[in-house]
Amino acid sequence: MTTSELRSPKQVEDAAISFVMAQEATAGRMARDTRYQGAVADLVSGDRVVEVKAYGTTSRGETLWLEPRQYEAAKDDPDHFWVYIVENVRQGDPAHFRLLRLGGERLRQLLEKAKQRRYYEVPLPVAVYDAVSQQGD
Q1: In a domain? residue 80
Q2: pLDDT in tens for each of the 137 residues of the chain?
Q3: Is residue 3 situated within a structural domain?
Q4: pTM
Q5: Are 99 and 86 in contact (CB under 8 A)?
Q6: For the CA atoms of 62, 18, 39, 66, what is the dihedral angle to 10 degrees?
Q7: Which of 2, 43, 129, 133 fits a 20 to 30 Å CA distance from 32?
């Protein structure tokens, strides 16, 4: 099978989700994709609620971003709320993906060090990007 580099964030996310669902099936848990359904996280798998964080390369030293409701769900029930980190996704070959699972006591410890941030998402439409990238300073 020939694989090619994944370019868009959606391609990276979709590949990570598919990979995690396959890994969960191997572990005897049937994962269900709950994205776009108003759920608190990406998947429900057995008794786990799973938020998947996809990284094109490595997550080493990075900060995990959780939505406020994800943080609350994880803090309220770290034994059932899991964060799965899928690394090395951008290269496209699932055989080279790496899965890190955070739950239970380890997740609880990480949540104790969480810092709340507030920010605004400002859209940057393609037309504006293209216009700005064509002009000099």
Answers
A1: yes
A2: 557 899 899 999 999 999 999 999 999 999 999 999 999 999 999 999 999 999 999 999 999 999 999 999 999 999 999 999 999 999 999 999 999 999 999 999 999 999 998 888 888 889 898 888 877 55
A3: no
A4: 0.85
A5: yes
A6: 0
A7: 2
